[in-house]
Amino acid sequence: MRLGADKPDAFFGFTQDRRHQPNGTRLAFWAETREEVDRLARLVRKIGGKMPGRSGGLSRPTAAAIMPAFFEDPDGNKLEICAGESPIIPG
Asked: Which of 6, 40, 62, 67 has its CA 20 to 30 Å from the CA of residue 28?
């Protein structure tokens, strides 16, 4: 067994800063299917997450055939869960 084989391939962490002010930056997470996006959006709404926009948080198609659900964390930071044809957007 190789070292770290039982660990996830990707990881990121957050640090707290009392002076942090939310801004226009959005952090997006990729889901495998639109159904998974909607399931997570319902979960965020159920636990009191703020879901701006007319869709109430449920996914809706965009011009790039991506199905996003937008929400904000308790500090007002913008987050997104999305699914679609490809998580890589050509440059």
From this structure: 6
